[in-house]
């Protein structure tokens, strides 16, 4: 029995589950298109397989709310015992897993999440779904942060694949001055994200607004991230710089490609 806290794995039949996942070929809707389920299953489970040495008794593992996480949790739900609080709260409860929180487990051994885009240096854009702040908190509390994504999220430089900009969570009263400050200093345009199924702007789980900064060219993302966070009214950005330890890409043919940070 393998007990993990933020999502706890009881992975006794590791190879059996891997075989079961590889043989699964049904379809499901994700990210606006139909994908083979086994592609997602393969690379999601590859993380567990490759990082099995990380999973010791009484570990705490975080699960984010990226679109790729949904199917991973579906599989993990058959083997999990305890899941720590993350933005994927309803997903965790839906699979009958025990919910915990960062008050009880402030330090995590591993966190796993998806990404909207990943560049060659493992800098991420996250927050397309609106949960960037909570996702960054969970990732920041973990000793190891692992990302899973499909091949369409793989870029040499941010902005090549993801065209919706960098999400920035802001205090509602400050969205106009923050938008102006970002555009004035870094160029491009920071646009208030509007809701699709209701009137008005998107409101985050923290009751804030989101600006999508559509930048014009590549930047020094570490400096940009720090500078934007210093603007009064900014809560957090969707730039995850120097946080991911490894990224797994699910390829179109069902294989898994891994990427580690470049050696400086």
Automatic annotation (TrEMBL):
Keywords, in A-Z order: Isomerase
Gene Ontology CC terms, in alphabetical order: cytoplasm
Matching Pfam families: Rib_5-P_isom_A (PF06026)
Enzyme class: isomerase
EC numbers for this chain: 5.3.1.6
An example Gene Ontology biological process: D-ribose metabolic process
Sequence intervals crossing the membrane: none
Biological or metabolic pathway of the protein: Carbohydrate degradation; pentose phosphate pathway; D-ribose 5-phosphate from D-ribulose 5-phosphate (non-oxidative stage): step 1/1
Entry-linked InterPro entries: NagB/RpiA_transferase-like, Ribose5P_isomerase_type_A
Catalytic reactions on record: aldehydo-D-ribose 5-phosphate = D-ribulose 5-phosphate
Source domain of life: Eukaryota
GO MF term set: ribose-5-phosphate isomerase activity
Family: Belongs to the ribose 5-phosphate isomerase family.
Stated name of the protein: ribose-5-phosphate isomerase
Organism: Cyprinus carpio
Lineage: Eukaryota, Metazoa, Chordata, Craniata, Vertebrata
């Amino acid at each position: 029995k393998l007990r993990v806290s933020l999502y706890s794995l009881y992975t006794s039949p590791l190879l059996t589950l891997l075989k079961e996942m590889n043989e699964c070929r049904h379809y499901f809707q994700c990210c606006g298109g139909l994908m083979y389920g086994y592609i997602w299953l393969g690379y999601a489970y590859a993380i567990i397989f490759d990082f099995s040495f990380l999973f010791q008794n009484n570990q705490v593992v975080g699960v984010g709310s990226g679109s790729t996480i949904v199917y991973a949790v579906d599989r993990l739900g058959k083997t999990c015992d305890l899941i720590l609080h993350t933005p994927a709260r309803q997903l965790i409860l839906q699979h009958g897993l025990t919910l915990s929180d960062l008050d009880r487990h402030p330090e995590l051994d591993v966190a796993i999440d998806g990404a909207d885009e990943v560049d060659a240096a493992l800098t991420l854009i996250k927050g397309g779904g609106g949960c960037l702040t909570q996702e960054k908190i969970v990732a920041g509390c973990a000793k190891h942060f692992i990302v899973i994504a499909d091949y369409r999220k793989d870029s040499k430089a941010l902005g090549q694949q993801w065209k919706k900009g960098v999400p920035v969570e802001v205090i509602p009263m400050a969205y106009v001055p923050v938008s102006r400050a970002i555009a004035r200093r870094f160029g491009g345009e920071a646009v208030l994200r509007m809701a699709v199924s209701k009137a008005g702007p998107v409101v985050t789980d923290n009751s804030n607004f989101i600006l999508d900064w559509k930048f014009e060219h590549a930047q020094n993302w570490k400096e940009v991230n720090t500078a934007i966070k210093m603007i009064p009214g900014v809560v957090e950005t969707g730039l995850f710089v120097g946080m991911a330890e490894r990224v797994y890409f699910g390829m179109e043919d069902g294989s898994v490609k891994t990427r580690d940070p470049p050696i400086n």
